[in-house]
Amino acid sequence: MRKRGRLFIVLLVVVMCGVFLYPTIRWYGFVPQETKDLATGSKLQIKEYARGQATIDLRELKTLVKADPAGALPDTYGFLIATAKDNYKAMKRAVPKSWTMEALFKGFYSEQDMFDTLEDSYRTELLDLKTLSGKVLQLGLDLRGGMSILLEADIEAYETKTGKNVSALEATALVQEDIAILNERIDQFGVTEPDIRLQGTNQILIEIPGAADPERVNSFLKGKGSLAFQIVDQELTTQLQTYYAENPGEIFTDAGQIKQPSFLPAGRIAAGYYINDDYGLDELESYVVLYEEIGLDGIHIASAVTSSNPVTGQPTVNFSLDSTGGEIFYKLTSTNTNNTLAVVQDGKVKAMATITEAIRSDVQITGFSVEEANELSIVLKTAALPIELVVISQQAVGASLGEDTVASGLTAILIGLVLVFLFMLVIYKGSGVFAIIALVFNLVIMLAVLSAFNLTLTLTSIAGLVLTVGMAVDANVIILERIKEELAAGKTAQASVKAGFSKAFWTITDANVTTIIAALVLSQLGSGSVQGFANTLAVGIVSSMFNALFVVKLMYDAALSRKNYQLSIGWKRVK
Length: 575
Description:
Elements (H helix, E strand, L loop, with lengths): L2 H28 L2 H7 L3 H25 L12 H11 L10 H6 L4 H23 L4 E2 L1 H4 L1 E8 L1 H8 L5 H17 L1 H4 L5 E5 L3 E7 L4 H9 L4 E5 L2 H13 L21 E9 L5 E10 L4 E2 L3 E8 L6 E7 L1 H12 L5 E6 L2 E7 L7 E5 L3 H12 L7 E9 L1 H54 L3 E2 L1 H30 L4 H33 L3 H32 L6 E2 L4 E2 L1
Parallel strand pairs: 1-15, 6-12
Antiparallel strand pairs: 2-4, 2-14, 3-4, 5-8, 5-11, 6-7, 9-10, 10-13, 11-12, 16-17
Helix pairs in contact: 1-15, 1-18, 2-6, 3-6, 15-16, 15-18, 16-17, 16-18, 17-18
C-alpha cells in the first residue's frame, strides 16, 4: 500500500479514537462528581431533582420581580430568554431590547409555563449526561465500589407451596420473570443502574455500582414493594386540583415531592396520578386526594394476568387474592360502592376504577388500553416474586478501595511506560522514538476500543493493560533486530527497513495470533475478572500488531524519503 493510503488509514484511526474517547474524557475530566451522582441516579430521582430545583428557581424569580420589576435578569437565568423570545413572537408582540424581570415574566403564558421551562432545562441536562454515562469506559465493582449479590431460586419452597414438581426449564422461566420484576423495581427503589442477569439455570447475579445501602438493597431484592388499594375523596380531589392550578409554585417541596396543602383534614393525603410517558417514565397526569387508611395491602395478591372481555374485546386486568385478602376486599368494596378505588404503588396512583359491586377474591378491572393493562398487570405482580429467592452471597467493595486500585494501576502503567521508553531509547536511539510513539498510540487505541464497546475496566483489565505495555514492544524489537541484521549484511537503510518488516511479518503474526486465540477462548468461556482480562489482552494484541506493522512502517517510509536522512538504530548511524 502506498504511503498516502497508509497515512489516510492512520488519520482515520486517530479520528475514530477521538470520537470514541470523547465521551469518556468529557465524563471523567469535565463533569463534576456531584453532577455525575445525579445523572447516574434513577430516572425517577432525576425527575424529582429537576422539579425541586425548578420550584426553588421559580420562587426566587417571583421574589426578584416583586422586589424590582425593572431589575436586570440575572445571568443564571439567561437560558429562559430563548423561550421567552419564541413566546413573544407567538403572541405577536415586540421582543424587548433589554431583558428585565418584568419583561421576562411577560414572555411566558403563565407561571406553570415558566416552571415547565425551568424543569425542562434541568431534566435535559441530566438525561443527556445519563446517556453520555452509558457511552463511557465503565469501571467495575473492584474499581468503582458497590455490591455484588448472588441469588438462587428456592425451588423446594415453590414446590411445597404449589404442590407440583418444577423442571429445570420451568425454574429458569420463573427466574426470568423474577428478573423482569426486579428490573421494574429499579426506579421505585432508587437503585443506581444495577446489572441484573441470569447465571446458570436458577441463579441471578446482581451487581450494583457505587455506594449502596445493604438494607435498601435487600428490600429491593426480596421486599414485597409498596402496593395498596385506597379510596379516593372526590370532593377534596376537585378542590386540590383547583388549588394547584392557581398556585403552580406550591405543588412540590424543595426535594421535588408533592406538597401536602394545609386545608387537607387529618386522614387525607395528596398524591399524584401517574401514567407512563413515551420513555417509560412515570408522568404526572393529575392530583388525587386519598383516604390515608389503606383499604387492602398488595401482599394479599396471589396472581395477576391480562386478558380481554369476550364480548367487547376490551382489555382487562384480572387478579386473585388470598383468603384473607378476599375477606378484606369484600368488606372494602361493599361499604364503598360507587366510590373510586385507587391502585397506589409507592405513594403514586397508577390506576383508578369505580366500585360498582362488592367483590371478594377474583377481581377484574377494565377501562384501559392494551399497554395500560399490561403495565397495571406488572404493577400488581411486583407485589410478590413468582419464585422466592435466597441470598447465596453478598459482597461489598468500598469506593475508597476502588480509588486506591485505580491509582495503583495508573502508577503501574506509567512506571511500565517510562521503563520501556528508556529501554527503547538507550538500545535503539532514534528508531526507539518510533516505537515509543507506536506504544503511546497503542494505549490510545486500546482505551478507545474499550470505551466504544462499553467494556468494563476491572482490576484484571488494568493488569491486561500493564501486560500489553510490555508485550507491545516485542514486535518492534523483532522488527528492529531484523533491520540491524540486514544492515550488517551491507544493505542500504531503505532496503534494510523493507526487508526487516517483510521478514518480521510472519514471525510477529504467528506469535500474536496464538495469543489472540487463547484470549478469545478465555473471553467466551471465562466470566467476571477472567473475561475482563481476556478482552483487554485481545484488544491490546491486535492494536500492537497494527502499530508495529503499519504505523511504524509509515514513520520509517516518511523518514527515509527525506534527503540525507541518517537511520539511527543503535549506536551506529547508517545512510
